[in-house]
Design goal:
By secondary structure, the protein is mainly alpha-helical. The chain folds into two domains: 2-13 and 22-298, Rhopdopsin 7-helix transmembrane proteins (Up-down Bundle); 300-348. It has twelve helices and no strands. One of its GO terms (molecular function) is G protein-coupled receptor activity. Its main location: membrane.
Length: 354
């Protein structure tokens, strides 16, 4: 049986050498997708870094996670121009093999750091809402900073084998981390990414957002419209995660399972899985552009800072004009901010300081 398996594997490997993958399929949509994500995500994350930085200075615990998430997304977005050039060039890497490995390392590192930070955001919000009184002495900025550093360290060490993978060697083929026949190490990565990087985070997001939703629905101090807003945010968090990361990780799981059946891991399978794989990888980048809108700009404190900043900018512009009536129009904006502060906190179902 072992001899038959080795013979099948050798035959499959030889066929894979002559297998031409459909690199041109989905080229234009992928380039447009990467460009759109970069155009939306770059200014959105730059803005949220500034806004969440203010929250960090005010000793806001959730601000540590949100600021770290925005910085992570910015680093992630920084690799998109390189991938767009690579895809547009017919999947030919124009730079060195070392640079390919470094780019892939940064890309995948920040993908999973982002996923784990999303879990931290949901967990911290759940604790602050469901256990608001009990958690006041436990939620500290230094604890949040330690968690962020631990996540970065663990993910960075876990992806260190990227520098030794043959998929990152561009000599000869000029391909950079293209899917190919799996090895035992790559298959292990597939399973680890699916379970640790997708399945467990998904379960945590579902449980924490369900806890937030249940607590808010039981509240008698919130109106139905406010409860609906919280429900939409909770559902949106889970749906966004599924849309962005489920297709990619399901394909990884399928490729990992196929590794145990060498006679199925042939050229036909590689061609059939190639386009769905590239599209699913592109979908995963959307998360970095939507995160600022869904997580950061939905925060009451951050929205208040943004409104104050816009009011100050508008005030400076209007003060320069000679019209007194234009200057007087600024004051209602400031007053409305103060009046809406309490209702905004109730709409999010969170206690002050979260």
């Amino acid at each position: 049986m072992l001899a038959v398996t080795e013979m099948v594997t050798q035959t499959t490997n030889r066929s894979d050498l002559n297998c031409t993958l459909p690199h041109d399929e989905g080229r234009l949509p992928l380039v447009l997708l990467y460009s759109a994500v970069l155009l939306v995500g770059l200014p959105a994350n730059l803005l949220t870094v500034l806004l969440t930085g203010l929250q960090v200075r005010r000793k806001n615990v959730l601000g540590v996670y949100l600021c770290s998430l925005s910085v992570c997304d910015l680093t992630y977005l920084g690799t998109l121009p390189l991938w767009a050039i690579y895809v547009n060039s017919g999947h030919r890497w124009p730079w060195s093999s070392a640079f390919c490995k470094l780019t892939g390392y940064i890309f995948f590192n920040n993908m999973y750091i982002s996923i784990f930070l999303l879990c931290c955001v949901s967990f911290d919000r759940c604790v602050a809402v469901v256990y608001s009184l009990e958690s006041r002495g436990l939620r500290r900025q230094r604890h949040a900073a330690f968690v962020v550093l631990a996540i970065i360290l663990v993910v960075a060490i876990g992806h260190a084998p990227v520098f030794t993978m043959k998929e990152g060697a561009t000599e000869g083929s000029h391909h950079c981390f293209e899917p190919s026949q799996s090895s035992a190490m790559v298959t292990g990565f597939y399973y680890a990414r699916f379970v640790i990087g997708f399945l467990l985070p998904l379960l945590l997001l579902v449980v924490t957002n369900r806890g937030i939703l249940a607590n808010v629905q039981r509240s008698t101090g919130l109106q139905s419209a406010q409860k609906r807003r919280v429900r939409q945010l909770a559902v949106g968090v889970v749906v966004l995660f599924l849309v962005c990361f489920a297709p990619y990780h399901i394909i990884l799981l399928v490729r990992g399972i196929i590794f145990h059946f060498p006679w199925l891991d042939n050229c036909s399978f590689q061609k059939a899985m190639y386009t769905p794989y590239t599209i699913s990888l592109g979908l995963s980048t959307i998360n970095s552009a939507v995160n600022p809108i869904l997580y950061v700009l939905s925060s009451n404190n951050i929205r208040k800072d943004l409104r104050r900043g816009l009011a100050q900018v508008c005030g400076r512009v209007l003060v320069r004009t000679p019209s007194n009536t234009s200057q007087n129009k600024i004051q209602p904006i400031n007053n409305s901010l103060e009046l809406n502060t309490g209702s905004e906190r109730l709409a999010a179902g969170k206690p002050p300081g979260t």
